[in-house]
Structure formats: structure tokens, C-alpha cells
Write a structure and sequence with these properties.
Layout: H1 9-24, H2 30-38, E1 59-62, E2 65-67, H3 70-81, E3 88-92, H4 98-103, E4 109-114, H5 117-129, E5 135-139, E6 152-157, H6 165-169, E7 171-183, E8 186-195, E9 198-207
Parallel strand pairs: 3-4, 3-6, 4-5, 6-7
Antiparallel strand pairs: 1-2, 7-8, 8-9
Helix pairs in contact: 1-2
Bound molecules: S-adenosyl-L-homocysteine.
């Protein structure tokens, strides 16, 4: 990460504090903690909010969408890493691009889709400025996944709803799907592993993501 990405002394210190907090909250994977330390979250939010970038809270990113809480980003990244070596990862819901940037530090290649054109354009600019050249972002409805690049070692969905069946077909053997699943009146963050024709489902906790919607905007 270059200094031009906005990492000053103050943000370095606050970022270090964030890592301490993530550790205290139970994030153990050192690669994930390093990735969280490397990505300047303030570069992924509006300048007016950058002083709040290292709070452990979700923040608005425009068009009614939010950048996820750092703990949730770390937790989802840690769950994705359980698949082992991550060659290709797919994210549905680019939003600010922050989660994709974190994933880009633990995976060879990250493919990410966003249904809102303006958010996709801004995220691409941020990836470029941050010198992240292993992320491919597309303005498209992610409900169909990204068949041309499948199979993926991990698929991370960052908007809540019913789990799109087609994504299961795009998971590699041993791959992991991490997603906020709508269950009755709440969302559960689930981690589903494909192993030998079987599916293992683990619930990581209750979460509150913006909805997974159909079509592009
Ligand atoms: N991962 C993001 C969080 C974004 S919030 C970050 O790190 O900032 C979820 C995003 O999912 C929103 O931007 C929303 O527009 C997008 N989204 C919702 N449904 C979608 C769909 N079907 N395909 C692609 N993106 C979708």
C-alpha cells in the first residue's frame, strides 16, 4: 500500500488498535489480521466519514448501501481461508470495495460483482489507486455468479437473502461459501463447505446486511 493511499501516522496507529480489537474478538488467522492491517479502510469510505473508518461499525457508502463492520469483514475472510489455498475467490456485492481489497491480500485472484453501476465505478478507482491489480470488478447482477471464472475456492456474499443455488455449482471441491442467509425474520452468517459431494453448514452468528436484490441499477 502506498502512502498516497492516505495512510498517515494517525491512521496507522488507529489501524493497529483495530487489529488488537479484532484479535480480542476472536480473529486468529494471522494472514487475515495482516490483510486487515494492510488495507486502509479510510480509502474506501467518503472523505467526510474517514475519521470514523477504524470504528468497528458499518458506515454508509451512498445509494443506501453500507461498508460492513471490520469484524464481520475479518470473520468472513477468515471463514473463506478455511478452504485452504485461495486461488480464485468470488464476491457478490462489491459496495465500497473494502471486503474485496481484504480478500485480495489472502487470495491470488478476486472477482467481484456489484449491481449498482456508480458503486462499481468508484470501487474500481479505489482498487487502482491502492495498486490492487488482482481484483476484477464487474457491474452485474451477482445472482448468477461468474460462470466463466468458476470454480471458486471461496464465494463471499455480502448482501442478505436466500442463498442463490447457482453459487453452489460454482464452488470448487473443498470450497467454502460464506453468506448472510435470510432465516425467517433474521439473517444468519453461514459458512457452507463442499466436501466430497456433501455440504457442511456452520452458523457464525446473527448479522444484518443490506438486501440481496435482483437486476442491475
Ligand atoms: N462488500 C461491501 C459491502 C457492500 S453492501 C463492502 O466491503 O463495502 C452490499 C452490496 O451488495 C451493495 O452495494 C449492493 O448494491 C450489492 N448487491 C445487492 N444485491 C446484489 C446482487 N444481486 N448482485 C451484486 N451486488 C448486489
Amino acid at each position: 500500500m502506498t502512502p498516497s493511499a492516505g495512510s498517515g501516522m494517525t491512521s496507522d496507529t488507529t489501524r493497529a488498535r483495530l487489529i488488537d480489537r479484532l484479535r480480542a474478538q476472536g480473529i486468529q488467522n494471522e494472514h487475515v489480521l495482516e490483510a486487515m492491517a494492510s488495507v486502509p479502510r479510510h480509502a474506501f469510505v467518503d472523505e467526510a466519514l474517514s475519521s470514523r473508518a477504524y470504528e468497528n461499525s458499518a458506515l454508509p457508502i451512498g445509494r443506501g448501501q453500507t461498508i460492513s463492520q471490520p469484524y464481520i469483514v475479518a470473520l468472513m475472510t477468515e471463514a473463506a481461508c478455511a478452504a485452504g489455498h485461495l486461488n480464485k475467490v468470488l464476491e457478490i456485492g462489491t459496495g465500497s470495495g473494502y471486503q474485496a481489497a481484504v480478500l485480495a491480500h489472502v487470495a491470488q485472484k478476486v472477482f467481484t460483482t456489484e449491481r449498482i453501476g456508480e458503486l462499481c465505478r468508484l470501487a474500481k478507482q479505489r482498487f487502482h489507486r491502492a495498486g490492487l491489480h488482482n481484483i476484477w470488478a464487474r457491474h452485474q447482477d451477482g445472482l448468477g455468479g461468474w460462470p466463466a471464472q468458476a470454480p471458486f475456492d471461496a464465494i463471499v456474499v455480502t448482501a442478505g437473502g436466500a442463498l442463490p443455488e447457482v453459487l453452489f455449482d460454482q464452488l470448487a471441491e473443498g470450497g467454502v461459501l460464506v453468506a448472510p442467509e435470510q432465516v425467517n425474520d433474521h439473517q444468519e452468517l453461514v459458512c457452507i463447505t463442499r466436501s466430497g459431494g456433501q455440504w457442511q453448514r456452520r452458523v457464525l452468528g446473527e448479522v444484518s446486511f443490506v438486501p440481496l436484490l435482483e437486476g442491475v441499477a
